[in-house]
Amino acid sequence: MQQVGWIFRHNLKSLTQSKAKLLMIIGLPILSILIYFLSYGAQSDTSGLKIGLVNQDQGVYTTQLVDWMKDANTQATSVSLKDGNEKLTSGSLDALVILGKGSEKSIAVLDPQHITVKSIQGDTVNNAVKSAVNASLTNMMTMIKASNDGGQSFSKYAKTFDTSKITITQKTTSNQQDVVLMMSMQILGFLCMMLLYAAGNLGELILQEKEDGTFYRLMSTPLSSKVYLLGNALFSLAVVVTEIVICLVAMRFAFGIDPGVSYFALFGILFIFAVMAVLLSLALGFTATSRKSVSGLQMILFTLTSLLSGALIPVAIMPNFMQKLAEFMPQYWVMDAITTLQQNGNLASISLNIAILLGYALLFFCIASYKFTKNARVNSFV
User: Which residues form the signal peptide (predicted)?
Assistant: First the structure.
């Protein structure tokens, strides 16, 4: 244990002497929060979004709905369905609101239907625009009820509304909470990718010290190769866990984000993922032939699996075959566990997720052990 402690202290000393590495360890978790915190904060309001309004069922109510949405957002414009789809695809529009055939009658009977919101910018924009549409519909249905009860035309109530700028209060707490939960998921998904890269430094370190001869000089001392690897692995795990703690503490106390899950539960899930990430790094380090090759392999593997797993892009918007493919990625089971807990799940409900993550950890441990003892390139370590 003294030898393991020496390696730990040696790596810690090297780390504290590198301001760039320290900045990355502290800054990357904060950066992952800032990226999504600012993005979601900006998009929760539709006033800055370019919205196309397609009215395929011209009538008193649908026309008024379009007018109100234009008043609420100066960048909202009326477009045809064809032009709207083209502008949505090209990025000229952020979202498209389609009032389809039958929407006029459905609004008249206080049961709005055939109203669709389209966006290729994800659930955040979609939900923000839907919230704006629902707000206008709530105002409209309130006036329709009032006109029916009071015996006056809807147009008079609408005109009074426009003139006096009456605001009708509605509850938006649930929508806001949904945005916070989605933001939390995106932050933690990005963090998972950063944890993989942080743990990946271990594999690069092993190969670098082998290439520059540091390892062989250490092996000329009473230090054994197994103790050397254990010490480096524990230090790598400590660094990754530190990033987890920084991120969760910042979410809780600096940004006041409520992820809808106990922070202790989040730490537990991410800790298991961190152990798996370190073992994966060892497996890759023993498999690759050089530091450059393992660096390139990690970049491709970590980025690709993060994209396919739903850590960076919500699984719900992926095609069906990609959703099936996502289930083979470790990050998917982290995100799925968090989602389950957000939906009032308990420890038993995520037992499969934990078992799969531990299974991945065991798999990578076996690969690393096999490569360490059997591979000819690794035998030089022993």
Answer: none
Burial class from Cβ neighbours inside 10 Å (0-12, 13-18, 19+) for residue 226 reads exposed
3-state secondary structure of 55: strand
Cα distances from 342 to residues 22, 138, 283, 309, 337, in angstroms, run: 33, 28, 33, 18, 9
Same domain assignment for residues 260 and 213: yes
The one-letter amino acid at 40? Y
Both 114 and 232 in a single domain? no
At 183, list the tokens: 């933001």
Domain boundary (170, 185, 216) is at 170
Instruction: For residues 187 and 270, give the distance between their C-alpha atoms in angstroms, rounded to a whole number.
Output: 13
How many CA atoms lie less than 13 Å away from 162 in the CB half-sphere?
Answer: 13
**Residue 337, CA distances (Å) to 148, 219, 274, 310 in order:** 49, 43, 15, 12
Angle at 75 between CA 69 and CA 81, to 5 degrees: 75
Q: Single out the residue of 115, 111, 102 nearest to residue 65, CA to CA.
A: 115
Report the C-alpha gap between 337 and 346 in whole angstroms. Answer: 10
Residues 246 and 261 in one domain: yes
CA dihedral 378, 379, 380, 382 (to 10 degrees): 110
Tell me the residue type at 227: V
Q: pTM (2 decimals)?
A: 0.65
Q: 354 and 208: one domain?
A: yes
How far apart CA 288 and CA 285 sit, in angstroms, is 6
Q: For residue 92, give every residue at least 6 positions away whose Cβ sits within 8 Å of its Cβ, in sequence order, or none.
A: 50
Tens of pLDDT, residue by residue over 178-206, are 777 888 898 999 999 999 998 888 777 77
Distances from the Cα of 199 to the Cα of 233, 244, 262, angstroms? 9, 12, 25
H-type alpha helices, the chain:
2-16, 19-43, 60-72, 81-90, 103-108, 123-150, 154-164, 173-211, 214-219, 225-249, 263-287, 291-309, 320-326, 330-342, 351-374, 376-379
Q: Can you tell me which residue has the tokens 């477009």?
A: 79
Whether 264 and 127 share a structural domain: no
Q: Which of 170, 202, 217 is the last residue of a domain?
A: 170
